[in-house]
Amino acid sequence: MVRIVFTLLLFSVLFLSGCYSPRVADAYNFNVTRAELNAAGDLEIEGNYLEKAWGITELRGKVSQDAILLSGVIEHGKSNVIRHCIARIPAYINQVKIGSKVIWDRHRKNVLPVPAVPAVKKIAVLKIGRRNMDFSKVDFPGFIEIFWGRDPEKNADVQSVRYLDFFDVKTVNGLTDLSVLEIAGTENLRSVDLSSLDLPELKKLVLYNVEVSGLEKAQIPKLQEFRIDDFRSVPLGKVVLPENLPELRKVSIQSFAGNFDFNSLEGKPIEKLQIHGDCSRFSFLKGMPLKELKLSGFRVVPGELDILKTLPLEKLKLASRRITQWGFLKGMKLKLLDIEVAGANDFSPALLEGMPLEVLRLYTNSRDFGEAWQHCRDLPLKELILRGSVVPEKFIRQSRIENLALIGNFWRSSDPQETFISMSDLKHLAVWNGIILRNSRPYSKMVNKWDRLSSKKLESIRLMAKDLSFAKKLPSLTRIALQNKAVISPAPLANRSFDCLLFNFDERELMRHRIVKHSPRRKLPPLDY
Q1: Banded model confidence at residue 364, pLDDT cuts 50, 70, 90
Q2: 87 class by beta-carbon count within 10 Å (0-12 exposed, 13-18 middle, 19+ buried)
Q3: Residues 513, 517, 522, 523: what is their CA dihedral angle, to the nearest 10 degrees?
Q4: pTM surpassing 0.90?
């Protein structure tokens, strides 16, 4: 019996990288939409692979009697598009199969199975340039779970994604249904001219480390989100947004050496704005309907931040140790405030009095605000994250805080457990690397012992501990994360069910003590504070 092996490497571009090993494709996930002979006698096969986030890297074929049996190799993050050609198919071959499915029969016209999902006719997402690129995410200051990190975002509909290694404006404009365009610079793609770009349905544009020209002339009237990450240290001309963008709501700019014209944001209906880099003047914000603003890595010009008081801001994040005047905060109606005040001489919690503040995240670099915290006692505060501060124990005990994180702080009390025990509304607690003060000087490290910690409401903890015996006094606890590297016995958790366990443990011990884990993860996610 004659055996023929057909191998074809498909056009594929990595979108998501990972440590997944190649494996044999499941035949049921092949969706073949076309299989026919061309004029040269080659069998052309087109379709897509249906398993989410996986794509074909190789198709193989072997002859069995009068049929060719196809099989495939798939890898995570590869293109799901199937394009295969069997050159000069032999005359004695009457059928081509994938698994048990006949996708071509020499003597029958309609043998293709009904697709499990309709074939994609419209390309909604186009990614151009660098492979293996996961564009940096816009991090507007929404709720950040310091205890567990973020769950990975679900992949976009991979069936509507196309990948290109080059930029050709005619090709791009031909995709009239395009809603997302991402362009990343490479050695072979260092600049793009967008002056002729004409995409009437484009809603999101991402530019990553590529020299851009002509953007101000682009026809993208329905753009809702714009993101540019530009790390070039030599200014080669400023990127300017088109004037007519009536639907633009979300903007993220990371730009150095003056590579972006911030004045082109003026008059835009932007509600969420993030800027990192060369920006020190903020007059372009005037009249903007901003609800969320994040500024980092910027130069501070005295008085420039006063304009923030005129904006309808609800969420504000400022990351710059060079801010020394904080009077602009007084009278603002913020619900979330996330700031670094390491170099501030005039910051005081008294500036927050009267705000409808629900979330406060503060990095203070060993500051002690003492009784000034009492100005915040009437705030509707639900979440407090303090880093590098003297802990306001009296204020915390009086509060209705539900989410509390204290990292690298200083304690006047020798027993921090007392503070947590007195918090009747506490649901989520993260605390470690504390220093006990005596006579206002560092005396000792906080003991990682929680023998007296008890609460009926506490649902999650993330801390350092020598053992888990304290969990017996926390009946509502369903998530535990320990910073320790040593292996800890899970015996105190016996016969309980948990959503998440993150610490070093022996899997056999969990089974022996009948501990149920709904979403076990070994590695702690990175902190975000």
Answers
A1: confident
A2: exposed
A3: -140
A4: no
